[in-house]
Amino acid sequence: MDVNPIVLRVYIFCKRVPTRMHWNSVKKIHKYIDEHGYGDAVNLSNSLMTMYSQTGRLDKAREVFKGMRNKNVVSWSSMISSLAMNGCAKEAIEAFREMQKLGVQPDDQTFTGVLSACSHCGLVDAGLMFFDCISKEFGIVPNIHHYGCMVDLLGHAGLLDQAYQLIMSTGSSQIQQCGGP
């Protein structure tokens, strides 16, 4: 597989920039990518989406996503997480459904984004449904991030007994990763 060294450098730069940079800086990076013909590089578009959403420019993240000719599971997960972190839970769930319709298989990051969306907006029933289908429908073992989203969701909803039961069902290795006993 041939990798363009310039694309690789820009990608590495995008991964190393501060998570809370000013959106004008992201705009300059975006302009550089477009001017040098790297706009079709999926990994760069995915990084741009993430950077735009972290600066609160969900509109720009959407623009990048919609302009992508080729989207992979990382692209979809980035968009879902962008929507989630900006309080657009229903749109994140809609994006998840659209991804499935197009035959893109979700991964653990996709579910972290969807569960985060449910947690941010208090969608308890949806969160429980998604958490249940992670392993049953998709064969993915829930990880510490999935459990964290669920505990947060249940705790904020006042369902402390359910949150406690979920924590106790995770096993000691998961609890230790959370800083527990």
If you had to describe this structure to a student in words, what would you say it looks like?
This protein is mainly α and 181 residues long. It has eleven helices and no strands. The protein has helices spanning 5-16, 23-35, 42-54, 58-67, 73-85, 89-101, 108-121, 124-138, 144-156, 160-169, 172-177. The longest helix has 15 residues, at 124-138. The chain is elongated and about 55 Å long. The mean pLDDT is 85.
Compressed to H and E, one letter per element, the order equals HHHHHHHHHHH
Largest sheet descriptor: none
Shape: elongated
Mean pLDDT, as a whole number?
85
Which consecutive residue ranges, at least 5 long each, have pLDDT under 50? none
Strand proportion, as a percent range, falls in: under 5%
**Total helical segments:** 11
Structural class comes to mainly alpha
Straight-line distance between termini: 46 Å
Helix percent reads: over 70%
- Radius of gyration, whole Å: 18 Å
Number of strands: 0
What brief labels describe this structure?
mainly alpha, 181 residues
